[in-house]
Amino acid sequence: MTTPGLRLELSDGVGTLTFDRPDALNALDLATKTALLDALAELAGDEAVRCVVLTGTGRAFCVGQDLREHAAGLTSGAVEEVWRTVPEHYNPLALALHTMDKPVLAAVNGVAAGAGASLAFLADLRVVAASASFTLAFAGIGLSCDTGASWTLPRLVGPTRALELMYSGRRVDAEEALAIGLATEVVPDEQFAAHVHALAVRLAAGPTLAFAAMRRAVARAAGGPLAAALETEAEGMRRTGASTDHRAAVEAFLAKQRPAFTGR
Ligand code: T3D
Fold first, then answer.
1. Which ligand 1 atom minimizes the distance to the CA of 83?
2. How do beta strands 125-129 and 185-187 pair?
3. Which residue, among 110, 150, 117, has the nearest Cα to 133 in the 3D structure?
4. Ligand 1 pocket at CB < 6 A
5. Percentage of the chain surpassing pLDDT 90?
6. Ligand 1, closest atom to CA 147?
7. pLDDT tens-digit profile of 33-81?
8. Is the pLDDT of residue 2 over 70?
9. What is the rounded distance in angstroms from the CA atom of residue 129 to the CA atom of residue 136?
10. Which end of the chain is more exposed for a tag (fewer CB within 10 A), N or C?
11. Residue 85 CA: which ligand 1 atom is closest?
């Protein structure tokens, strides 16, 4: 399956999903989110696929919601429709990755921002290219957080660091990502593709049922359910999405200006 925003390739027991909108830094528009949901369902149901890899084309992994599409929706007045994307796309995407009964590997080839970073956090392992980086980005446009980041990030880096990263939206480079537990390993750019392929093939040749049971056991032992966290996130996104700060900040981003937040 290949759609304009997403490529799906199958080989050696590995299903590789590649975000493929490099001109928009692989931002998630409606078509890409829908294609990703369909592809994850297909991979989950395919017994021949025993490892799932998420990666991106060009200099980005994925920079989250397509803010051009988002801004167009807000200015057209279809606000309810814009915010339906959290329950209709982002939450199901998080759950699809989280409940996948096979290892999920994020091959973070470049910048991962907003919901793009959240998707990477849902993977079991994050192999990060030396030139790649993460940014939580949500606060920059006056939004809360989504796609499970409130659940995954504190588990990866602890609650204090999670909030620091969310509040600041600052860039975390690969070296720091490794030091704080966001990256499982950092690989030089020129060795990245071969390294990811070898690791994915190794995982796909492993005891898939045992890996699935480990995923579930670790998630369960780590605390409250993801589904409850997703509901809380969706509520936070609804509230912050209705704010003046959010609208003004999206406009400012697209106009390449600094947002001036008013707290409303
Ligand atoms: O209802 C809902 O939709 C809510 C759901 C929200 C989920 C979310 O994911 S919210 C978070 C959305 N993402 C962001 O806020 C990230 C915004 N992007 C950035 O902060 C920066 O672009 C990066 C840190 C990711 C990279 O910075 P840099 O300096 O390397 O690149 P740049 O110059 O900022 O961007 C390059 C181009 O990509 C630029 O377009 P241009 O000027 O070349 O035509 C920029 O506008 C575009 N771009 C970057 N991010 C997005 C984007 N276009 C659309 N959507 C984006 N998210």
1. 1
2. parallel
3. 110
4. 24-25, 27, 63-68, 70, 82-83, 85-86, 111, 113-115, 135, 137-138, 140-141, 143, 146, 237
5. 78
6. 7
7. 999 999 999 999 999 999 999 999 999 999 999 999 999 999 998 888 8
8. no
9. 18
10. C
11. 1
Distance, CA 236 to ligand 1 centroid (Å)?
Answer: 21
Which tokens belong to 162? 């999670």
In a mutational test of the pocket of ligand 1, which residue from 21, 23, 25 has the highest number of ligand atoms less than 8 Å from its CB? 25
Distance CA 246, CA 38 (A): 30
Cβ-proximal residues to 176 (8 Å cutoff; 6+ apart), any chain: 182
Look at 57-61, 112-116, 228-232, 244-248 and tell me which has the smallest mean pLDDT: 228-232
Closest residue by CA, ligand 1 atom 38: 24
Q: How confident is the model at residue 221 (pLDDT cuts 50, 70, 90)?
A: confident
Instruction: Quote the distance between the C-alpha of residue 67 and its chain's center.
Output: 15
